[in-house]
């Protein structure tokens, strides 16, 4: 049998409270009915209170029960309503890549280098790129103009996680990309960025002939550490 969690106990408590308030309201209403009688005066019957104290005490109890019953019911409706979907962190349609290491999972699928072997890497040479580029209109993330080879290199250095996601079309944990990421990557491709260029530069940067057959987050850590070590050596 499945055990109840704290939210389940809380919900049961609210339901019990509503039940007690309903029972109390019914009890106070019966108490009021027993405190008066109907007498005929003229053409219409009227209520004649036989016990003023009991009648008004039950009236106060009824008002109290109904008031808190309505409040508890509204509260129950609020906690049972489905929550709104989380708003995307992308406020301008541009991703804000961050270094966030996924939780290691022994079941994470190993990335097969064959998945990207057929990507053309001869579209444009990236060997002669200047590493001292500014974040201008050609910048991959923040720019709006055509993406240059130098901007691709700068992007790989700054956001290796996003570069790998763009190349493999997967999250670092091996899951499929969301619709928002796919739309952003298509926009980058329209501006001149390609998976072939990204693959070419990563292989050159890491001095690899092909990508290792490892989980994608392991490849990301190797790429990140290599970039970080080179920055330290330059300093």
Nutshell version of this structure?
Helix content is 51%, strand content 5%. By secondary structure, the chain is mainly alpha-helical. The longest helix is centred in the N-terminal third of the chain and has 29 residues, at 52-80.
Q: Explain this structure to me?
A:
- The protein is mostly helical.
- It is built from seven helices and two strands, in the order H-E-E-H-H-H-H-H-H.
- It has helices spanning 6-33, 52-80, 149-158, 160-168, 179-190, 195-206, 216-234, and strands at 36-41, 44-49.
- A hairpin with a 2-residue loop joins strand 1 and strand 2.
- Helix 3 (149-158) packs across helix 4 (160-168).
- The protein starts with 5 loop residues before the first helix and ends with a helix.
- The model is unreliable at 85-102 and 124-133 (pLDDT under 50).
Summed up, the domain count is 2
Q: Which outline best applies? A: rod-shaped
Which structural class best describes the helix and strand composition? mainly alpha
- Beta percentage is 5-15%
Arrangement of strands in the largest sheet: 1-2
Summarize the amount of helix as a percent range: 40-55%
How would a crystallographer describe the biggest sheet? 2 strands, antiparallel
In angstroms, what is the radius of gyration? Answer: 34 Å
């Amino acid at each position: 049998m499945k055990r109840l969690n704290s939210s389940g106990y809380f919900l049961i408590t609210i339901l019990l409270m509503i039940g007690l308030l309903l029972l109390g309201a019914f009890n106070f209403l019966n108490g009021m009915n027993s405190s008066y009688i109907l007498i005929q005066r003229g053409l219409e019957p009227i209520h004649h209170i036989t016990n003023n104290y009991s009648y008004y005490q039950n009236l106060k109890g009824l008002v109290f029960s109904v008031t808190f019953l309505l409040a508890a019911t509204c509260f129950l409706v609020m906690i049972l309503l489905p929550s709104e979907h989380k708003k995307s962190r992308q406020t301008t349609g541009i991703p804000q890549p961050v270094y966030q290491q996924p939780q290691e999972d022994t079941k994470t699928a190993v990335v097969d280098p064959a998945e990207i072997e057929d990507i053309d890497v001869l579209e444009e040479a990236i060997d002669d790129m200047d590493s001292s580029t500014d974040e201008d209109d050609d910048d991959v993330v923040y720019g709006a103009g055509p993406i240059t080879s130098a901007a691709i290199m700068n992007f790989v250095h700054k956001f290796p996680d996003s570069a790998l996601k763009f190349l493999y079309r997967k999250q670092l944990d091996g899951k499929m990309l969301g619709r928002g990421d796919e739309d952003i990557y298509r926009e980058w491709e329209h501006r001149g960025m390609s998976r072939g260029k990204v693959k070419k530069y990563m292989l050159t940067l890491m001095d690899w002939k092909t990508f290792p057959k490892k989980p994608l987050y392991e490849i990301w850590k190797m790429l990140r550490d290599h970039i970080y070590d080179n920055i330290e050596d330059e300093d």
